[in-house]
Amino acid sequence: MFFRFTTAGESHGQALVAIVEGLPYGMAVDIGKINHELWRRQQGYGRGGRQKIEKDEVKILSGVRHGKTLGSPIALLIENKDWQNWTEIMSVEAIDPAEAGPKNPRLVTRPRPGHADLAGGMKFGASDLRDVLERASARETAARTACGALAKQLLENFGIDVRSHVIQLGGVPEAPLQKSWEEICNVTDDAPLRCSDSSVEAQMMAAIDAAKKEGDTLGGVFEVVAKGLPAGLGSYTSWNEKLDGRISQAIVSIPAVKAIEIGTGVRNVTVPGSQVHDEIAYKDGSYARLTNNAGGLEGGVTNGEELRVRGYMKPISTLRKALRSVDIDTKEESLAAFERSDITAVPAAGVIGEAMLAIVLANAMREKFGGDSLPEMLANFENYRTSLRNY
What we know:
- The chain is α+β, with helices and mostly antiparallel strands.
- Helices cover 32% and strands 19% of the residues.
- It contains twelve helices and 16 strands.
- The chain has a four-stranded antiparallel sheet, with helices on one face. The chain has a four-stranded antiparallel sheet with strand order 7-8-14-9. It has a two-stranded antiparallel ribbon with strand order 4-5.
- Helix 1 (31-41) packs across helix 6, helix 6 crosses helix 11 (346-369) and helix 9 runs antiparallel to helix 11.
């Protein structure tokens, strides 16, 4: 059995939809928790005007009855409130070519550097790059966040928790913060940038203000941590079953995320092995690592320590201070098109990172412990934990 999902929808279309498969029968579903995750995704200092329009809430159309999963696919819907302003531009019905100009006042022919606009337009031969940017938009991640919220609720049944925090933004601080699980848990959801150090957070906010005045954008680094994982998720036997590979794809698939780090992976290349590899101890009836430089993964398999993943997000590609581009119709130099945008979205990317990590882990748990119903899956899990204690 696998946990998987797919999404559909455009940034200014009628709605975002998602289909989630693989949740066991009988799992309690809390819609309020899904909506809270959607709210968290929309927060953060430096966000743009879209967040004032959209008040994301999920509708569950199928797969849940009387608050519990049926074991069948779950259909989710998130309406786009901004759709009312785009009904002609994003209409499903065909438009008479003679009316194409008046009906399409937001034609995009000047691709934005850093976006999928030009590459996607070349791929499909699109004459209006809106056909590309509407789906390539980070708006799609609202649907992913809802799917991830269901994955989180599955993991909660096994004592697994997933959290995130911002550890660097716009080069502040000079080196990314390193914080304990307890410090991460103390970060409140309404913190401006979801940073565990208030003084550093104030410096980050000042950097955002400066970038806004310049019509620029900022990137940064978020860390996602999962606690309570058993050893043995993932596999070392085949390249595509290695959990670090699956996690890497999930995190880098988030728009604007260009790199990932697991544990202290970047630092490790500069120091000798004696300062990298986590020594092993046995105490209180279980194995433990004396350090966690591996970030909870060895050989593509969880080792029972905290799983620590960092996502490196580039500055958002839509700038008020437009970059140079070329009009695809005239081939003449022109400033890039501008779409409503944020100054930064690193805290939101952290929330999406939680969702994507939870989805990968939920799938790994379903692979490992199977079960048609939640009680059956829990029984398989408890049997495995007993075997680990006896190893």
